[in-house]
Amino acid sequence: MERVLIADDHPMVRDGLRTVIAVAFDQCELFEASSLDEASAVIAREGDFDLVLLDLNMPGAVGFSGLIALRERFPSVPVVIVSAAQERGLARGALAAGAAGFIPKSLRRSAIVDALKTVLAGDFYAPEMDEIEAAETLEDADIQRRIDSLTPQQKVVLRLVVAGKLNKQIAYELDVSMTTVKAHVSAILAKLKVFSRTQAVILVNKVKFGTDA
């Protein structure tokens, strides 16, 4: 590895990555950028890089927009997302958006070096994808168990909540009182172990509850 661009808006992160790379890869020329526009300008000015390490939440980018923009403008330059965020599906989403890898900032230095070597060898890297998929499967199963604990009527009410119906609309559609609807909603939240309708919707959407209705 001869030329690397570290694009992150936090100087301490750039310094940390610079140290990791300098120690692991002799005579590697390092460049830095603190914004997406600066990163684009550096690549345009300096030419091809062996690797670009891109922070997911860079100024000038939303979600994977920065990654997509760099891939479209510089398709021959491999871009690895380096992120403090590790939300569900994030690594897979980065790879789908064109990243050559996804490296959590929480990884040990030796693991970061191994990840970079994996990408340089032409392979994609994401942290323990099998374990991530297994964890997601367990989470889905747990959510489904919570949903299965609901009574048939509570499931009907939940589907209407997911559809965005207000309590008064649910009461009208089911021909029941507002008090009954509120009691159902309270029981649903308790069984799903959430504290609000919004949290309930987010939770059950993870297993696509209601889409088969």
Structural overview:
The chain is α/β, with parallel strands linked by helices. The protein is built from ten helices and five strands; from the N terminus they run βαβαβαβαβαααααα. The chain has a five-stranded parallel sheet, sandwiched between helices. Helix 1 links the parallel strand 1 and strand 2. Helix 8 (167-174) crosses helix 9 (178-192). It starts with a strand and ends in an 8-residue tail after the last helix.
Average pLDDT works out at: 87
According to DSSP, the number of beta strands is 5
The CA-CA distance between the termini, in Å, is: 53 Å
Point out poorly predicted stretches: none
In spatial order, strands of the major sheet run 2-1-3-4-5
Q: In percent terms, what proportion of residues is strand?
A: 5-15%
Query: Helical region count?
Result: 10
Q: What does the main sheet amount to?
A: 5 strands, parallel
Order of helices and strands: EHEHEHEHEHHHHHH
Helix content estimate? 40-55%
Helix vs. strand class: alpha/beta
- Shape call: elongated
Radius of gyration: 23 Å
Features:
54% helix
Topology:
Elements: E1 3-7, H1 11-24, E2 29-33, H2 36-46, E3 51-55, H3 65-73, E4 79-83, H4 90-96, E5 101-104, H5 109-120, H6 129-148, H7 152-162, H8 167-174, H9 178-192, H10 197-205
Parallel strand pairs: 1-2, 1-3, 3-4, 4-5
Quick structural overview:
Helix content is 54%, strand content 11%. By secondary structure, it is of the alpha/beta class. It has a 5-stranded parallel beta sheet with strand order 2-1-3-4-5, with helices on both faces.
